[in-house]
Design goal:
five-stranded antiparallel β-sheet, 17% helix, 4 helices, alpha+beta, globular
């Protein structure tokens, strides 16, 4: 009888323990800023949501559709700014990661592979400042940085997916550009091809496009976060530097394109990766959130950088 009573007590105790099991930790509130170490990039929590990805149009041979509904049912965090030169420098010095010293620099007619350039010297006529978005980095460099940051912090850092990028860039906007339908209205929030490019010395002028009529105040790259954040609290999604994302580029979006926020990685790997957002030296028409760059993952360009995401 005593054994039966003792067994009942044990079962009751176990049931009591089960009832007091800790509840799952909720994701931080949207807009929360997370910084996992003193020198880590700040990331901003983005809420779940739905949006229409893509556009029924685009440049010849660069169709941006077909438009499709995407539902991102999870919160995730996005770099408050693009990764900066100073942050990338810490990674290179800590790991010995090898980068290219030949970057594609605009020579007045085309982007020319120029020896003696790279992320330290991206063709501005001066060294890159630590508070500027890093440029002249490849997709491979961005992946390596995210992997290093994950090991350093014990958190999962990565590149954004294309869907996550467009969702975070729009921040609820449904207009042609993230700021509205007027290409000349973006200079408060985006370091784009505008009137300030007229202040550039040759060979950077004239540019091969008609600049926007506004002026963001920066002829070359703007310091990270210098311009106004979007409604999610994220800076520089449009302009500054093109941002590598995880996805393989396929034209147009295939029928099996993910609609849950995940990346399209293709059945047989990638020959090109998607890049998003335009740059300080890009035509206004390429500053739209639906525009899809298509570039080899080893491309080294004066106007290419990256932003990181963090899983919650």
């Amino acid at each position: 009888m005593k054994h039966i009573l003792w067994g009942a007590v044990v079962l009751a105790a176990l049931a009591s323990c089960d009832s007091k099991a800790p509840a799952p930790i909720a994701a931080p509130k949207p807009g929360t800023i997370i910084k996992d170490c003193d020198t880590c990039p700040e990331v901003v929590v983005i809420p779940p949501g739905s949006f229409t990805q893509g556009f029924d149009g685009g440049e010849p041979e660069r169709y941006e559709g077909k438009p499709h509904q995407v539902k991102i049912a999870y919160s995730f965090a996005v770099g408050k700014t693009e990764v900066t030169t100073g942050q990338f420098r810490e990674f290179v010095e800590a790991t010995g990661h090898q980068t290219s010293d030949v970057c594609n620099i605009w020579d007045g007619k085309t982007a020319l592979a120029t020896p003696g350039t790279g992320w330290r010297n991206p063709g501005y006529g001066r060294p890159a400042a630590d508070n500027e978005p890093v440029a002249c980095v490849t997709w491979v460099d961005g992946k390596a940085y995210a992997d290093w940051l994950s090991k350093k912090t014990g958190k999962k850092y990565r590149l954004l997916t294309e869907s996550e990028w467009e969702y975070a860039a729009r921040a609820g906007a449904t207009t042609y550009y993230t700021w509205g339908d007027d290409p000349n209205g973006g200079c408060e929030i985006a370091n784009i091809g505008d009137q300030s490019v007229k202040d550039l010395p040759p060979p950077f002028t004239p540019r091969p496009f008609t600049p926007a009529t506004c002026n963001d105040g920066y002829s070359f790259i703007a310091p990270a976060g210098a311009l106004k954040a979007n409604a999610f609290g994220v800076h520089d999604m449009i302009g500054s530097v093109w941002e590598w994302v995880e996805d393989c580029y396929v034209f147009p979006y295939p029928d099996n394109t993910p609609t849950d926020g995940s990346a399209y990685t293709g059945p047989n790997g990638c020959d090109r990766r998607v890049s998003k957002g335009g740059s300080w030296g890009s035509a206004p028409e390429r500053q739209r959130p639906t525009f899809r760059g298509r570039d080899p993952e080893t491309l080294v360009s004066q106007v290419f950088g990256f932003r990181i995401a963090r899983d919650l």
